[in-house]
Amino acid sequence: MKTPTQYITLLCSLFLLCSCATFPKTEVLANHVALSPENLSAINGTYITDSTAIKHQNEILWGKSSVVTAETYKTFTENPVYATLKVVDSKTINVQIHTQNQTLKTYQIKGKIKNGYFVQRPKFYAIPAIFINAWYSGRFRLGLLENQNVSTQYATKDFGTVYFAYPYNNSETPNAIEHLRVGK
């Protein structure tokens, strides 16, 4: 007979495998241009971030999982924030987040083209602790619109418990944010 620990381990493993963040089958926007390895370089350029539509810090940083300090968040809310995208190859995009006079973050988004979008590799973590148990899974996708703007979506599944008594679920369905092109 198996011990309870083995059952719990098996149950947790199955639970984690079945709970990754995914993009629901949404209708394709009328002005969406399907991305392919041949036309991926069409997203090269500088875009202004719509700070009023942003809900998650990963939407601010275009898919980058990173802690946003209070000082950086203040910069995002007070100044226009730009993202400069440069395609390296069909699986890598360089991103520079900046204001008019200050670079805030530079990094790479690694992923693949799927269903006409550039989809970032899934990001996830699990914290199995006595007092706080947490599971987080997130995906970021980038699409091109006919007017040469880009749309971004960030899907998350985030749930857990605190002191075994207060479960929480911060999972949200993704909303598309359109970023206006301001330069090449």
From TrEMBL:
Q: Which protein, by its recorded name, is this? A: Uncharacterized protein
Q: Determine the domain of life of the protein's source.
A: Bacteria
| Keywords per UniProt | Signal
Q: Which organism is it from?
A: Epilithonimonas xixisoli
N-terminal signal peptide: 1-24
